[in-house]
Amino acid sequence: MNLRDRVILLIAPEIINPRSMPCVGLGYIGTYLAAKGLQVKIVDSQFTKEDPGRALATLPPTLVAIGVDSRTIDRGRRIARLAKQHGHTTLLGGLHVSLIKEAILEFPEVDFGIVGDGEEPTWQLVEALEGRREFARVSGLVWRENGRTRRNVNTTESNDLDALPFPDYRLAGIHHFPLYPLVTSRDCPFKCTYCTVGNISHGRFRSRTPQSCVVELAYAKERYGVRGFLIVDENFAVRKERAYEFCTALIEADLNLPWTAFEGVRADMMTDAFAALLRRSGCRWVFFGIESSENGVLKAVRKGSKMSRIERAVTIARRNGLKVGGFLIVGLPESSFESDMRSIAWATEHLDKCQFWMSIPYYGTALYEWVKTNGRLLRAPVGDNLVNSLSTMPYYDTPQYPARDIKRAHVIASLRTGVEFFFEYIDREAYDRMHWTRQRADAERRRLLKVATRWDPFWAEHFAGRLPKAVDPVTAARDAAAVAEEPALTNDFLGTLGSPVPPVRTLPMAVR
């Protein structure tokens, strides 16, 4: 196959949750291939919502590379099947492939997989498809040979990250967007049992120079008109000297870009000097991976932190003018309904914003192996609804923490940290934007309150004064119809889960 005169097609499957940033991984790979002289088109369905079917149908047979994680593997496989129908060669890469490795070829629609970094290996695969390289010499490749599945070690992961060209999102037709995703490092040296990245990295940590990162931000501001950025590393501050140097370089560059340390700052890295420097450099938010307020749970998942350190980090960050967010997980090993309720109470009292995830035993992680021995796997840890909504069901349970209680804890956590958003969304001042009548907005608010109080009685007391009093008969009939159409959150495969919940008197963060 001569790919020099073909357009290489890279696809990021759409995800259910809205995305405010382009796909970084395909941005890097596409730009790397373009620098080698290839024609590249990226269909970033997770950002632009573009349908990849049109490109698959119109391009002559070519290499179609699809980046997948555990959320998008099902969609990626559907895209691969469509690609095969149009005569294309299919390659799957991304985090999910790195987790399951050779097993990706159990799907007949997949011709090749790449485990690990994808920039140079994808170029090497192009060379192999053109007959200029043996498949056995394509780094990280998973392929079929004489009826057997084979896999090569990825030797490119020792390459200099600063040597990679900055992602060119114009390959996906993206010319302007407000928030830039900055990757300053890859991998993670820690071994948290639930984490995919740490289980793949095997203690490895690689970083870029701070100067290269700041140059990329200046480039992004000029090219895309970005107004801020997120650091999306797993471990931005694991080497504190490098984090200090980045903040100092950012101050000296005077780019005037507010930013968020969305990931990558461990609580035990936080000091007053570091927090003050973060603030001076334009950082406004810092998010910690907290997981649980219980030391026993943190120890069970090998988090490497204690609650006293986390509380100290939150205090330091706030003292220096930073907003503090956190990520927590419901249903971890050694947790219980009562301990998760204590985590909810702590988070809503101490954090400005947080997200509670359902514990997910991703393939290839130590948590997955733990569940096989100690619990009951209820469904595969893949699919559109993997990361989470009120309707997400537990992926596993144990005799000590049954699924119905995990579900209750997760829904209460979501309501306590997010229900105010929904009330603001359908507030009476917003009904014009929604093209609703005022009566419809009031009905929606009553409907939401009914759902919320089913799971967590706290909301009946808190929102009682905000709901309309008497309504006319027409509105009452419309309200009744809306309630009748309400999705039955409790009618799932685990049966009725909406048991009464003892009230927790801590004020929800969204209300503060």
From TrEMBL:
<keyword id="KW-0949">S-adenosyl-L-methionine</keyword>
<dbReference type="Pfam" id="PF04055">
    <property type="entry name" value="Radical_SAM"/>
</dbReference>
<dbReference type="InterPro" id="IPR006158">
    <property type="entry name" value="Cobalamin-bd"/>
</dbReference>
<feature type="domain" description="Radical SAM core">
    <location>
        <begin position="174"/>
        <end position="397"/>
    </location>
</feature>
<dbReference type="InterPro" id="IPR006638">
    <property type="entry name" value="Elp3/MiaA/NifB-like_rSAM"/>
</dbReference>
<keyword id="KW-0479">Metal-binding</keyword>
<dbReference type="GO" id="GO:0031419">
    <property type="term" value="F:cobalamin binding"/>
</dbReference>
<feature type="domain" description="B12-binding">
    <location>
        <begin position="4"/>
        <end position="136"/>
    </location>
</feature>
<dbReference type="InterPro" id="IPR034466">
    <property type="entry name" value="Methyltransferase_Class_B"/>
</dbReference>
<dbReference type="Pfam" id="PF02310">
    <property type="entry name" value="B12-binding"/>
</dbReference>
<dbReference type="GO" id="GO:0046872">
    <property type="term" value="F:metal ion binding"/>
</dbReference>
<keyword id="KW-0489">Methyltransferase</keyword>
<dbReference type="InterPro" id="IPR007197">
    <property type="entry name" value="rSAM"/>
</dbReference>
<protein>
    <recommendedName>
        <fullName>Radical SAM superfamily enzyme YgiQ (UPF0313 family)</fullName>
    </recommendedName>
</protein>
<dbReference type="GO" id="GO:0051539">
    <property type="term" value="F:4 iron, 4 sulfur cluster binding"/>
</dbReference>
<dbReference type="GO" id="GO:0003824">
    <property type="term" value="F:catalytic activity"/>
</dbReference>
<keyword id="KW-0408">Iron</keyword>
<keyword id="KW-0808">Transferase</keyword>
<dbReference type="InterPro" id="IPR058240">
    <property type="entry name" value="rSAM_sf"/>
</dbReference>
<dbReference type="InterPro" id="IPR023404">
    <property type="entry name" value="rSAM_horseshoe"/>
</dbReference>
<keyword id="KW-0411">Iron-sulfur</keyword>
<dbReference type="InterPro" id="IPR051198">
    <property type="entry name" value="BchE-like"/>
</dbReference>
